[in-house]
Amino acid sequence: MKKIVIFDLDGTLLNTIADLATATNQALEHFGFPTHPTDAYRFFVGNGINKLFERALPEGERTEEQILRIRSRFLPYYNEHNADLSTPYPGIPEVLHILQSHGILLAVASNKYQSATEKLISHYFPTLRFEMVLGQREGIPVKPDPTIVNDILHATGLSVTDALYVGDSGVDMQTALQAGVDAVGVTWGFRPRTELEAFHPKAIINQAEELLTLCGLNGL
Q1: CA 187: distance to chain centroid?
Q2: 94 with 211: CB under 8 angstroms?
Q3: DSSP 8-state assignment for residue 88
Q4: What would the pLDDT profile of 49-106 be if each residue is shown by its tens digit?
Q5: Which of 25, 129, 173, 182 could disulfide-link to 199, CB 3.0 to 4.6 Å?
Q6: Spatial CA neighbour of 93 closest among 70, 131, 124
């Protein structure tokens, strides 16, 4: 039985794409740049917000100066509106409660900036205990660098064989691979199944309750 499950946030625990798209589009529009349909943002996110802005900007405008301008407009808006349209994926709250009730630890490893990661977890999962909630932190490399997973395992005193890492993207599958932990890809998130398959994770699941079996528990 696994002792800890480490979750990606966006596209794995929460469908946050509408709030991310709205916040980025209002910043782009403010500075006179074209906006994008919400669905396009599924391929912009996943590598931290600066990379999101770089991908959202027109090709000839992807400079550090323009990224910082978009960031300056995005952050105050998103900090206020990041829970307007976001929602947990079906079955996620129930599965998290079952895992915790069986003594399996929960943690979050996200490329979303730290304060927003903490806010969303506390807002949507107020009755759950997460051993660690880590987002993008100053001076720490973002996923797929395995540092974030290594930090969680070090803090909890657990080994790579104790852990399951769950995410919706190739970035997540690479993170797990580089950290040496078993990876589980989820098909309900932002990226296509083929992106997950390319990294040969331990499993690819279509429903949240399938996690219980992978952790050695019975279903819902």
Answers
A1: 14
A2: no
A3: E
A4: 999 999 999 999 999 999 999 999 999 999 999 999 999 999 999 999 999 999 999 9
A5: 173
A6: 124
For the entire predicted model, the pTM comes to 0.95
Element (H, E) at 41: none
What pLDDT is recorded for position 220? 54
Strand locations in 94-215, DSSP E?
105-113, 132-136, 163-167, 182-186, 203-205
Candidate list 8, 10, 19, 172, residue with the active-site label: 8
Pairing of strands 14-15, 87-88: antiparallel
- The DSSP code sequence of 31-82 is TT-----GGGGGGT-SS-HHHHHHHHS-GGG--HHHHHHHHHHHHHHHHHHT
Residue 136's beta-bridge partner residues? 113
What domains are defined for the chain? 4-15+86-214 (3.40.50.1000), 17-81 (1.10.150.240)
All residues at 6 or more sequence positions from 80 whose CB lies less than 8 Å from its CB, including other chains: none
Q: What angle do CA 191, 195, 199 make, to 5 degrees?
A: 135
Q: Which two tokens stand for residue 128?
A: 């759950």
Cα–Cα distance for residue pair 144/179, rounded to 1 Å = 9
162 catalytic? Reply is no
Please provide the size of the chain in residues: 220
Which one, of 11, 200, 169, 12, lies nearest residue 106 by Cα? 12
Tokens of 35: 């906006």
Of 139, 117, 119, 138, which is closest to residue 6 (Cα–Cα)?
117
